[in-house]
Design goal:
Layout (H helix, E strand, L loop, with lengths): L10 E5 L2 E5 L5 H14 L4 E5 L5 H4 L2 H5 L5 E4 H21 L15 E3 L3 E3 L6 E4 L11 E4 L4 E3 L17 H12 L5 E3 L10 H21 L7 H4 L11 H22 L1
Parallel strand pairs: 2-3, 3-4, 4-5, 9-10
Antiparallel strand pairs: 1-2, 6-7, 7-8, 8-9
Length: about 260
């Protein structure tokens, strides 16, 4: 309640033709606050908002953009996932955070849906919308500003916070991270946590690799699902946010996926 659920990073890119917002915040009130932040920096028009993935702290501010006539874009798979489950996300937010911060906030339909990575010139500044297939989520994207070397990583990267694998394809996620290493990155804006250097890509990949290899060994040696969380602790990451909750869930999810893979082999 103290932070009104505003726990995800958002940002904006100013070009000669206008502004592109990356992620829209947790609520309509948060979206309006982001609009005020843009207006404090530039009087150029906000041309487009891009939602990177379907966690509630990144998408529910879209209504504030739409009420100003600013289009909201997201990947088709992201839009489909949002429509299928995010009404429940909003109900949980109202319960955990409170009703007042979410007055006027509702599920909405994006104005633009896309299916592939592409160049985005709405701001008159070269941006790459990066889609690598099913990775951290089925429709997760990142936005790369070529001029500054800044990557808005969306769900692909977390800074000192355990990444959630619930919607992921782990192999696809690691392939996506390999593609990010090819970019001339200077600065990374993760989904959560502080702005980081490009080495964040290796940090997140290291966690995913350690999770998969540790759980795989446990499954192959006949370990039980009941014991997987305790048996696959990763002390190197114990200081990351949400380790006690998300890592335990990740271990269980990875166990079930690996067990299924082995059974079908």
């Amino acid at each position: 309640a103290d932070n009104q659920g505003r726990i995800g990073n958002a940002g904006f890119i100013v070009g000669p033709a206008g502004v592109v917002l990356v992620d829209t915040g947790t609520s309509v009130a948060h979206g309006r606050a982001l609009l005020a932040s843009v207006a404090a920096v530039t009087d150029r028009p906000l041309r487009l908002a891009i939602v990177t993935h379907t966690q509630p702290e990144f998408l529910f501010g879209g209504g504030a953009l739409q009420e100003r006539g600013i289009p909201v874009a997201m990947h088709l798979r992201c839009a489909t996932l949002m429509a299928s489950r995010c009404d429940q996300c909003l109900k949980r937010l109202r319960t955990t955070v409170g009703e007042a911060p979410f007055i006027g906030t509702a599920l909405y339909t994006p104005d633009r849906r896309f299916e592939t990575g592409h160049r985005e010139d709405a701001a008159g500044r070269p941006l790459q919308v990066l889609f690598f297939g099913h990775s951290s989520g089925p429709g997760d994207v990142a936005v790369f500003d070529e001029q500054s070397g800044t990557l808005f990583a969306g769900g692909l990267l977390e800074a000192r916070r355990v990444p959630d694998i619930q919607d992921s394809d782990l192999a696809g996620w690691r392939r996506a991270l390999a593609e990010l290493r090819r970019l001339p990155l200077k600065t990374v804006v993760p989904a959560h946590g502080p702005v980081s250097p490009p080495s964040l890509v290796d940090e997140v990949d290291g966690y995913l690799q350690a999770l998969e290899s540790t759980v795989r060994r446990f499954v192959e040696h006949g370990g039980s699902l009941l014991d997987v969380a305790e048996a696959t602790e990763l002390p190197a990451y114990a200081g990351w946010d949400e380790y006690a909750t998300i890592h335990r869930r990740n271990a269980s999810i990875a166990y079930l996926r690996i067990e299924r893979e082995l059974l079908f082999k």
